[in-house]
Amino acid sequence: MSGKVYRYNSPHGGFSSPKGEGHLQRSQALCVQPCTVSQLKSASEHKDSFFIQGLEIHQVTVVGIIRRAVPTITHVVYCLDDMTGTPLDVKQWMDLKEDSLDDGVIPPGTYIRVVGILRSFERHRSMVAFSIRRIGDFNEITSHMLEVVQAHLLSNRSSSFRKVS
After folding, report:
1. Nearest partner of 152 among 54, 72, 76, judged by Cα
2. Which of 39, 60, 65, 153 has its CA 20 to 30 A from that of 79?
3. Which residues of 128-164 are buried (b: 16+ CB within 10 A; e: fewer)?
4. 158 — pLDDT class (breaks 50, 70, 90)
5. Is 58:29 a contact under the CB 8 Å cutoff?
6. Which of 84, 85, 88, 51 is nearest to 67 (CA)?
7. Residue 116: CA atoms inside 13 Å, Cβ hemisphere, count?
8. Regarding predicted confidence, which is higher, 87 or 162?
């Protein structure tokens, strides 16, 4: 495993309610939600927010393989594929003072974990990365998929509790 901890709060699964039921707790807004590319591409959009199963997502993490890397002077766009749907573009901004563009580009064929936020521009979904790191242990891919399933089940459970009350 990686040493980084990705938590989501029970029973809300790292999600918040789109209905504006009170303010977000700080711990919910700072949680990183494990997702698949398919979930991110099919998430519903309202204004600048995205929703999975009617619950708002904030920061997300995705694991997949780089199919293509397109470097520019200010950023790199990776085409990330986790085999759950069509690949997702992931934009990583470069710190021009610290990063050399040659050192910063991860080659295609590399498995990575991305932590970031989902964005949409002219109906094109992409992710802006806060953190991208290579995966050294392929068990992390399986672990990520199990985390996605767990978060999905927890969000279903919290949705059921809201409907009853």
Report:
1. 54
2. 153
3. ebeebeebeeeeebebbeebbeebbebbeebbeeeee
4. low
5. yes
6. 88
7. 25
8. 87
